[in-house]
Amino acid sequence: MIELIGLDGDDTLWRNEDYFTVTQDRFGELLGPYLPSPYLPSGIDVQRALETTERRNLEVFGYGAKGFTLSLIETAIELTDGRVPAAVIQDLVGFGRWILTHPVELLEGVADVVTELSASGRRLVIVTKGDLMHQEHKVAGSGLADLFDAIEIVSEKDEMTYRRLLERAHVMPDRFLMVGNSVRSDVLPVLAIGGQAVHIPYHTTWAHEHADHDGSVPTLASIRDLPAWLDTLSPKPR
Amino acid sequence: MIELIGLDGDDTLWRNEDYFTVTQDRFGELLGPYLPSPYLPSGIDVQRALETTERRNLEVFGYGAKGFTLSLIETAIELTDGRVPAAVIQDLVGFGRWILTHPVELLEGVADVVTELSASGRRLVIVTKGDLMHQEHKVAGSGLADLFDAIEIVSEKDEMTYRRLLERAHVMPDRFLMVGNSVRSDVLPVLAIGGQAVHIPYHTTWAHEHADHDGSVPTLASIRDLPAWLDTLSPKPR
After folding, report:
1. B89 and A89 in contact by Cβ < 8 A?
2. To the nearest whole angstrom, how far is the Cα of B57 from the nearest Cα of chain A?
3. Percent of the residues in chain B that have a pLDDT greater than 90, as a whole number
4. Segment A94-150, tens digit of pLDDT
5. Is the confidence at residue A234, as pLDDT, over 80?
6. B90–A82: do the CB atoms touch at under 8 Å?
7. In chain A, where are the structural domains located?
8. Which residue of A has its CA nearest to B169?
9. Fewer C-beta neighbours within 10 Å, C or N terminus of chain A?
10. Which 3-state string (H, E, C) describes chain B?
11. Predicted TM-score (pTM) of this structure
12. Which one, of A101, A131, A162, lies nearest residue B134 by Cα?
């Protein structure tokens, strides 16, 4: 029986990665005129360089739009050997501000399903990572905060994070279900500590979050299918 | 009787503002050659412009070194009308990385006093704001994490934050004492919800955090004086 359902925020409840994708495309276009010859204006190599910078910075900057913006700036300076003008760097800071202030867009079906799950008597928790204040703004902007028993904004979604979360909630791992779009963050660490997980893929996933599961993890096409899947699993708690 | 003691992190348990001060001085020196005439190389006006940028960005970037670094970059571009070279901006990103990776330096007396308070039977909680991952690194690097019952990393220290914290801890406001260097964040909101506060000033305070109290708030010269002050207040819980 599932007592506590964890729901990932970014790209499970609301749109997120799309804003980064749009920004990265614009980034390649902006840098084009200042790149030395081995870099194609198509932006292919620019994306790879950005990914390398992001991975290198992850341990210091953490997840989220502010660290991403600093990585954009570093990559721009490195790739252009310092030829990038300050006006372009100002645009990059603007990209960060655009992501941080973008209105929350709930994914299709989320409002209905979260309302239904909340009424089913199970406890719900948002488990999300990224910049603290940005994630708080997204939770507030989602209009769903009151339907959740807790909001956990964490710096990394690993086994220790999930263990601590379950201790605080006084829930045994086998009574916990995590639902999210990232196999690396929402599925594998939860299975590793004895919990259950449902994968709801999003059409685009950040390279760093990419991982595969062995096919045995329940995978749903839409969050709309989650209540019916839960019904097949066990009777409702009340 | 005090059941729960909240301790601020930055500039109460460990050094913080000094790193920003050093960075700001360096910032003024770096920009000097690219400033138009009304700005003195002394950096006085540069500091004021940086403060204005930081305040403007606070609602979007939040507290912490990443937002500070983005504000440094914006201010540099604005003040120099875009003349600042990319190499200087790379230095500014480096300043942010320097702050984010600086080893934790506990303030004098902290290790002894936290150990003593922890042994006194009162519950202890760190209440700190800033970048999530950076604050986690500082808590881990302090070597004190095990002496605390909880670590609360928050985006803003206002009345609502303290109310929620006390609800989660099942503690009434009049049994809560907050200890910190910021009148604005550690003292006034706690008094407003009926809690108690002790002010331990630090030799430097960020302009945004500056506030005065009416003189009635207990003020200690050093955290070393906290156990004796607690003894005058009430018997120990056990």
Report:
1. yes
2. 9
3. 82
4. 999 999 999 999 999 999 999 999 999 899 999 999 899 999 999 999 999 999 999
5. no
6. yes
7. 4-14+105-233, 17-101
8. A168
9. C
10. CCCEEEEECECCCECCHHHHHHHHHHHHHHHHHHCCCCCCCCCHHHHHHHHHHHHHHHHHHCCCHHHHHHHHHHHHHHHCCCCCCHHHHHHHHHHHHHHHHCCCCECCCHHHHHHHHHHCCCEEEEEEECCHHHHHHHHHHHCCHHHCCEEEEECCCCHHHHHHHHHHHCCCHHHEEEEECCHHHHHHHHHHCCCEEEECCCCCCCHHHCCCCCCCCCECCCHHHHHHHHHHHCCCCC
11. 0.91
12. A131
| B chain contacts of residue A101, beta-carbon cutoff 8 Å | 60
Mutate to test the interface with A, among B70, B134, B135 (most CBs of A within 10 A): B70
Closest B-chain CA to A155: B133
> What CATH number does domain B17-101 carry, 3.30.230.80, 3.60.10.10, 1.10.150.240, 1.10.8.60?
1.10.150.240
Q: Does residue B60 carry a pLDDT above 70?
A: yes
pLDDT for A78 beyond 90: yes
Res A41: pLDDT: 57
Residues of B in contact with A97 (CB under 8 A): 60
Domain A4-14+105-233 fold: Rossmann fold (3.40.50)
CB contact under 8 Å between B60 and A84, yes or no, is no
The residue in chain A having the minimum alpha-carbon distance to the alpha carbon of residue B97 is A60
Class of domain B4-15+105-233: alpha beta
Q: Over the stretch B105-149, which tens digit does the pLDDT of each residue have?
A: 999 999 999 999 999 989 999 999 989 999 999 999 999 999 999
Residues A16-49 pLDDT 10s: 999 999 999 999 999 989 988 766 655 568 999 9
Find, among A36, A18, A78, A33, the residue nearest to A54 by Cα: A78
